[in-house]
């Protein structure tokens, strides 16, 4: 496609072998955001989006094309499985689309490749949830906008809670006695499911660390061995030593929902997608048996915010059109319509006043939690550091590792990896 | 292709090295036969392999993908780093256990199935063949769904069957001592059909006259198997052994879909480690680990050629 | 003697039957479960026969993805890849097994060597190559990199080694050219090996996921596994019903190819004159 670059790989390779490696440009120079031209969008805009979003976005964009008659949005749906690999390869082969949906924790890595276009002036960062906006900011520059968000809450069985005589927990102490009562009086085998290590368990653990005042980084350095982190690990561990939480990963075995439905599990932490999963699997009437509660408070009551961002590529053939499409998707009224189309929670705060969201008690709780929700720093090494946390949390949960020693190991291993700055 | 179709001269039957024109002609024919493959091979295999080798001596990360030539040459640093990588050591141990136990087991089951189907005693061979081959052709994701239900500690079919005989089955995939054996069982189940097909092709090339004449000499089935089947099947067995070892040393899909390498890294394989490192964006390091794995594969294959091979 | 045979036969059937049960059982469950609603699939303990019989999973797949297009793409890619492999791998396999030419040993070792290179490590360089050749999102990009598979060469060479040299020498004495010997004398003897190579190549291509996903940049180039993955595996949820229905939909054509080839497999042996 890039005609002038149709240089044989072999030739380039030979050149490298001869010249030796050339070394990185020092610094690389700060990216400066370019303005976007006024007026309506024109031309073809190619978009990649994953899963359901990719499936529905094409038809959804009709309205944008009606507003911009000279523009044509072409959406390619990409399977979630291996979407990361596809985008990384596309960057290497310079075959990127104009716009792509990117997982919010991928931003640091892809922005650092230099493939993403900085967010132009005029995009109002204040319109988005702050935790979500932070996922786009790499080294002080924003490279995209949040598209939709998700955050984690406690799902619990209302009927078991009533039987056990407890109400939704609001503090760490209450969460512990809540889980104990659910098991001892509510009749559940497990009072509360915390992910016992394995991929993604940092998303289950970090809310406790954040709520206790711990942070992942300060500047370019990790701060994983803080006393707050140790205390959070110890608290997390106590759910396993007191047999409140199952020691095997129920979600990996596909048994989480069934255990919750049949009452052997009284509570778990998860995101908004579980509402529909539980309603499907619990059958008629199950919706009345469960509720959600915000994360319990320690220093704060902070949860994790994830979701996906929209980014424009530097190699975009239609950069202006791409950004116009992105800002159209960020309009509050469009975000509400998008929620109604695919149930993605709006990343734009203004959209949440709509009765479609604020009128639903479960969604309203998610909306409330989003105001106090953090994301990990947008660093290119994040996935690797996350895997370290996953592995160490597993040792705390399963092999009774000492929390303080674990925090030190986490810090040491993460520092070995670095923040990629 | 003109050279290939050229009529061979009469001295073609002469002992090797007898005639120069003959040798030249055969040399040309050889390269004419080899060229179509070799051209594609150079483009799509050899060059990428060389590129990845270069990658393994640089600090290329995914953040450099857009400017792959602006990386630092780090020599053997990536290879040296391996020695300090505790996760890699664990992965290497797991992979070794998997290969040492899994390869002979899979070959034995595959050969048994092939011999049984080739024995002439069995009807409906096609049905058995298709049946045994099914796991090879099915996507691993679908298999994972089925196997998770089979191995579920509370309600899985396996533990239900054990309960019938009064044994309370363990948590197969959740126990760090049992997860790897479970993965081995699944791999044998999934892959023996492949070897069965390969071995069947080999078995059918063995002339039945040999069996008939040995039967006249009073040889039993076991003796026939040892003295006719195994020696004549040697190239095929070698092929099966090498290919299975190469595949098993790259164990990846089973732990990916069944255990994600856990619990506590007990099913983390070298290939899974490589996959993770690529996922983390450590391209240079991942390439180095890949070439260490490559060296082990080559070493094992050479060993097998020595032990099982004839003069080739 | 006859009684021993009967006993042996009985034992053999029992063992094979049990084996078949162990191997096919999970498939039966998968096929049956693809016709259950999602909640029933996930139920623990699992059911065998669907309590609620539904074709909803299949209907949903058919309505959501462009099945004919994805199927056609998969078929085109798999058939051309297989034909190419049959031609190129047997040509080189024959040369390596039966011809003398300079560089033969080196070529064999290099080809065998790349068979042992973990495929993950060459993925990105391969994609960059395809991208530089302008083959992204084309059938060429989907097919060409898989025409030169070291595995096929290795398979053909090993098989051809077992074909007696005398046959080839005899043909040379009769004045046949090399290509003629290859096509008329050697290939007809390779039925089982070619059938095996066909099955394995076709399957590998048919089930391939990562490469077509990355090379195809528009949905009209998606192969079946890629298109199916679009709907069954989400970011936070897996739809088991769609996974199983998709697996059955991918599996069916493959089983048909396999069953059809079985016959050729047997005929190939019957006509070799070896039996």
UniProtKB/TrEMBL annotation, chain A:
Similarity comment text for this entry: Belongs to the bacterial solute-binding protein 1 family.
Segments for region (Disordered): 398-421
Keyword Signal (UniProt): yes
PANTHER family: MALTOSE-BINDING PERIPLASMIC PROTEIN, MALTOSE_MALTODEXTRIN-BINDING PERIPLASMIC PROTEIN
Species, as recorded: Phytohabitans suffuscus
GO MF entries: maltose binding
Key word Plastid present: no
InterPro entries: SBP
Keywords: Signal, Transport
Cleavable signal peptide: 1-20
An annotated GO cellular component: ATP-binding cassette (ABC) transporter complex, substrate-binding subunit-containing
Parts of the chain that traverse the membrane: none
UniProt-recorded name of the protein: Sugar ABC transporter substrate-binding protein
Gene Ontology biological process: maltodextrin transmembrane transport; maltose transport
TrEMBL record, chain B:
GO cellular component: plasma membrane
Domain ABC transmembrane type-1: residue ranges: 92-304
The keyword Transmembrane appears for this protein: yes
Protein origin, superkingdom: Bacteria
Transmembrane spans: 28-55, 91-114, 126-150, 232-251, 283-303
Localization per Swiss-Prot or TrEMBL: Cell membrane
Stored InterPro entries: ABC_transporter_permease, MetI-like, MetI-like_sf
Family: Belongs to the binding-protein-dependent transport system permease family.
Protein name per the record: Sugar ABC transporter permease
Taxonomic source organism: Phytohabitans suffuscus
UniProt lineage: Bacteria, Bacillati, Actinomycetota, Actinomycetes, Micromonosporales
UniProtKB/TrEMBL annotation, chain C:
PROSITE patterns per the UniProt record, alphabetical: ABC_TM1 (PS50928)
Source domain of life: Bacteria
Residue stretches in coiled coil: none
Domain called ABC transmembrane type-1: residue spans: 71-261
One of the protein's GO biological processes: transmembrane transport
One GO cellular component term noted in the UniProt record for this chain: plasma membrane
Topology within the bilayer: Multi-pass membrane protein
Keywords from the UniProt entry: Cell membrane, Membrane, Transmembrane, Transmembrane helix, Transport
Pfam families the UniProt entry points to: BPD_transp_1 (PF00528)
Transmembrane helix as UniProt keyword: yes
Compartment annotation: Cell membrane
Transmembrane segments: 12-32, 70-94, 106-127, 139-160, 181-204, 240-261
Family according to the record: Belongs to the binding-protein-dependent transport system permease family.
Protein's recorded name: Sugar ABC transporter permease
């Amino acid at each position: 496609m890039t005609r002038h670059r149709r240089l044989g790989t072999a030739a380039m390779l030979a050149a490298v072998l001869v010249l030796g490696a050339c070394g990185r440009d020092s610094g690389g120079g700060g990216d400066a955001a370019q303005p976007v031209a006024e007026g309506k969008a024109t031309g073809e805009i190619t978009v990649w989006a994953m899963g359901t979003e990719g499936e529905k976005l094409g038809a959804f964009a009709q309205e944008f094309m009606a507003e911009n008659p000279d523009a044509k949005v072409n959406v390619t749906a990409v399977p979630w499985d291996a979407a990361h690999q596809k985008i990384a390869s596309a960057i290497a082969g310079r075959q990127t689309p104009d716009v792509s949906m990117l997982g919010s924790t991928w931003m640091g890595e892809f922005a650092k490749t230099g493939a993403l276009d900085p967010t132009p002036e005029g995009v109002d960062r204040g319109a988005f949830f702050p935790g979500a906006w932070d996922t786009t900011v790499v080294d002080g520059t924003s490279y995209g906008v949040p598209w939709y968000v998700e955050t984690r809450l406690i799902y619990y069985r209302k009927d078991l809670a009533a039987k056990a005589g407890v109400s939704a927990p609001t503090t760490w102490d209450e969460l512990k006695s809540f889980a104990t009562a659910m098991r001892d009086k509510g009749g559940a085998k497990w009072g509360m499911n915390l992910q016992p290590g394995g991929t993604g368990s940092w998303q289950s653990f970090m809310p406790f660390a954040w709520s206790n005042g711990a942070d992942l980084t300060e500047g370019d350095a990790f701060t994983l061995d803080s006393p707050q982190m140790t205390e959070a690990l110890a608290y997390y561990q106590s759910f396993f030593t007191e047999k409140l939480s199952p020691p095997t990963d129920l979600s990996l075995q596909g048994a989480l929902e069934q255990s919750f439905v049949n009452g052997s599990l009284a509570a778990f932490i998860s995101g908004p997608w579980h509402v529909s999963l539980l309603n499907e699997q619990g059958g008629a009437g199950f919706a009345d048996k469960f509720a959600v509660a915000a994360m319990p408070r320690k220093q704060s009551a902070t949860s994790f915010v994830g979701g996906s961002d929209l980014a424009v590529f530097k190699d975009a053939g239609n950069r202006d059109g791409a950004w116009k499409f992105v800002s159209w998707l960020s309009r509050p009224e469009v975000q509400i319509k998008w929620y109604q189309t695919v149930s993605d929670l709006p990343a734009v705060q203004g959209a949440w006043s709509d009765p479609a969201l604020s009128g639903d008690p479960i969604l309203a709780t998610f909306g409330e939690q989003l105001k106090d929700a953090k994301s990990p720093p947008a660093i290119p090494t994040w996935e690797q550091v996350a895997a370290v946390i996953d592995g160490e949390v597993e040792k705390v949960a399963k092999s009774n590792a000492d929390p303080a020693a674990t925090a030190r190991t986490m810090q040491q291993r993460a520092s070995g990896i670095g923040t990629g700055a | 292709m003109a050279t290939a179709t050229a009529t061979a001269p009469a001295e073609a039957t002469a002992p090797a090295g007898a005639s120069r024109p003959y040798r030249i002609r055969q040399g040309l024919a050889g390269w004419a036969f080899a060229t179509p493959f070799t051209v594609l091979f150079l483009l799509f295999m050899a060059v990428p392999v060389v590129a990845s080798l270069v990658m393994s001596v640089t600090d290329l990360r995914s953040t450099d993908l857009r400017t792959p030539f602006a990386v630092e040459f780090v020599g053997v640093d990536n290879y040296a780093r391996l020695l300090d990588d505790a996760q890699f050591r664990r992965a290497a141990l797991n992979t070794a256990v998997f290969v040492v136990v899994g390869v002979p087991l899979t070959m034995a089951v595959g050969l048994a199935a092939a011999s049984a189907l080739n024995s002439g005693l069995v009807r409906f061979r096609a049905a058995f063949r298709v049946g045994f081959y099914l796991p090879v052709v099915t996507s691993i994701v679908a298999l994972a769904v089925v196997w998770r239900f089979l191995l579920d500690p509370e309600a899985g079919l396996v533990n239900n069957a054990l309960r019938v005989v009064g044994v309370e089955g363990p948590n197969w995939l959740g126990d760090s001592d049992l997860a790897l054996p479970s993965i081995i069982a699944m791999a044998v189940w999934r892959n023996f059909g492949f070897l069965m097909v390969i071995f069947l092709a080999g078995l059918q090339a063995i002339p039945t006259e040999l069996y008939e004449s040995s039967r006249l000499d009073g040889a039993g089935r076991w003796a026939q198997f040892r003295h006719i089947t195994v020696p004549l099947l040697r190239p095929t067995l070698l092929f099966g052994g090498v290919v299975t070892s190469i595949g098993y040393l790259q164990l990846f899909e089973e732990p990916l879909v069944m255990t994600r390498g856990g619990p506590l890294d007990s099913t983390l394989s070298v290939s899974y480690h490589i996959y993770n490192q690529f996922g983390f964006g450590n391209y240079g390091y991942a390439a180095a680990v890949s070439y260490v794995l490559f060296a082990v594969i080559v070493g094992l294959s050479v060993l097998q050629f020595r032990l099982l091979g004839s003069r080739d | 003697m006859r009684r021993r045979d009967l006993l042996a036969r009985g034992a053999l059937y029992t063992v094979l039957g049990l084996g078949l049960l162990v191997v096919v059982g999970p498939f039966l469950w998968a096929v049956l479960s693809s016709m259950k609603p999602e909640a029933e699939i996930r139920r623990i303990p699992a059911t065998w026969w669907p309590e609620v019989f539904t074709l909803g999973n299949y209907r949903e797949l058919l309505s959501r993805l462009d099945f004919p297009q994805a199927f056609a793409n998969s078929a085109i890619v798999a058939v051309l890849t297989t034909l190419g492999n049959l031609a190129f791998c047997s040509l080189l396999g024959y040369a390596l097994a039966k011809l003398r030419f300079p560089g033969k040993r080196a070529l064999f070792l290099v080809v065998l060597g790349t068979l042992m290179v973990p495929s993950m490590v060459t993925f990105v360089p391969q994609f960059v190559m395809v991208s530089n050749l302008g083959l992204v999102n084309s059938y060429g990009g989907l097919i060409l990199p898989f025409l030169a598979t070291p595995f096929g060469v290795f398979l053909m060479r090993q098989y051809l080694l077992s074909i007696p040299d005398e046959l080839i020498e005899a043909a040379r004495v009769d004045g046949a050219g090399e290509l003629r010997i290859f096509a008329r004398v050697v290939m007809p003897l390779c039925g089982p090996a070619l059938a095996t190579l066909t099955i394995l190549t076709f399957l590998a291509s048919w089930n391939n996921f990562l490469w077509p996903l990355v090379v195809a940049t528009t949905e009209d180039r998606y192969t079946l596994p890629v298109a199916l993955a679009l709907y069954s595996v989400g970011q936070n949820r897996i739809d088991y019903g769609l996974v199983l229905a998709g697996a059955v939909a991918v599996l069916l054509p493959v089983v048909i190819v396999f069953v059809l080839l079985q016959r050729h497999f047997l005929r190939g042996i019957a006509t070799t004159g070896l039996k």
